Amino acid sequence: MTATSIAAAVRAGDRTATSTTLDALERIASTDPDVGAFRVVRRAAALDEAAAVDARPDRYALPLAGVPIAVKDNVDVAGERISDGLSDAAGAGIGLSEQDHPVVRRLRAAGAIVVGLTRVPELCLWGATDGPDAITRNPARPGRTPGGSSGGSGAAVAAGHVPLAHGNDGLGSLRIPAAACSLVAIKPGTGVVPAQLGPTNWLGMAENGPLATTVADAALGLSVMADRPELAELGDPAGLRIGLGLNRPIPTTVAAASVVGAVRAAAAQLSAHGLPVADVRVPYPANPVPLLARWVAAAAGDADDLIARGADPALLQPRSRRHIALGRVAARRGWVRPGPVADLRSRAERFFADARIDVLVTPTLARGPLPDHRYSARPWLANVLPNVACAPYPGLWNLLGWPAATVPFRGTGVQLVSRPGGEADLLAVAAVLEAAALLPASMSPAD
């Protein structure tokens, strides 16, 4: 069942929050040993929360009444130790969270039940989810990673453990798992959803958002996280102008023919729906330093925060220690500056205006998801190179703070991007592609 249908059943009195939570916990117990989506399963606490929802006098009006959800293991959940991907030994000194993160608080207030915390790569740095003690598998594509860093959340939804999961996105960490697991995800623009991710929100690049199996569920999750009920209503995309951008973000990265073909077919479906589509050339930055410097410097800031709270830096993975060391160099040499980002933002604004587009369509991944190896045991460069080659498209929009979404279409994830304030437009366009993807090929206007 979808989050939307579960909530409707609980509001109508056809189900209880306790029964929906028990169902989710049984699914997790049955199949998660093979998937590895969860670091913590909160069986007793979740059942207590479900009973509290069933006792609420306002349960008939809760938007997420009785919906079991998963929360990424890098935001506070009261009473739980949040690891941010650190091993039990490295994070042993970190205490229990005293209160919920604002997004978790909003989800619970809406009637959702937190059944567990999902696995992440160490410090949420990487596009595959694994560590020394576990490899998270992709239920949708055996032998492949579910992506990262919200890989555990993506795997939990793809496995049917929960219909909706929380994640966050600093360089594609929602959109990469969505593309890898054939899910829907949306990274809102700056300020739409409370971030509070580490000391700096990854230097302004990271945002919280939902992962779901349907656009309606993603919209519902975003509406609760943003405290904006209107976002749950999918609008009509009529009048929106679409730009199809297939040029390379990095000269050395070439998208697979199957990915390019699927994204072209998605644009053709939008055209068949009556939306004007134009080929455009996205102004990706030639200088990677503003983005890469923030990636490494954000790691250093997050590590310092965790160390101050009791983490042991000597027990971090070698790849993470190298990343942190580079971050300290970037900060010391002044490579993290606002000027280049402001220039890129101005270029992007001019690009959307000059091309006369409202929504940009690109790939999310350049190819299929990476194999599900134990990347945590590999050197730093052996992590960075495959990560960048697999997912070169999402990062620019984190740097700018613009909203972006991923919707599955013909075996890949199609990325949708809009200017600030365009979350509803992205969801409306995503709904068109979702409906088209459900049509038999013989009925597809794009064929």
Strand content: 5-15%
Strand runs, count: 13
Q: Please give the share of residues in helix.
A: 40-55%
Classify the secondary structure makeup into a structural class. Answer: alpha/beta
How many separate helices? 15
CATH fold-level name: Amidase signature (AS) enzymes
Q: Looking at this structure, what is the CATH superfamily?
A: Amidase signature (AS) domain
**Broad CATH class:** Alpha Beta
Domains, number:
1
Which CATH architecture? Alpha-Beta Complex
Query: How would a textbook summarize the main sheet?
Result: 11 strands, mixed
Radius of gyration: 20 Å
Mean pLDDT: 97
Major sheet: order of its strands? 1-3-2-6-8-7-12-13-11-9-10
Describe this structure in words.
With 447 residues, the protein is of the alpha/beta class. Helices cover 41% and strands 14% of the residues. It has 15 helices and 13 strands. The protein has an eleven-stranded mixed beta sheet, sandwiched between helices. Strands 4-5 form a two-stranded antiparallel ribbon.
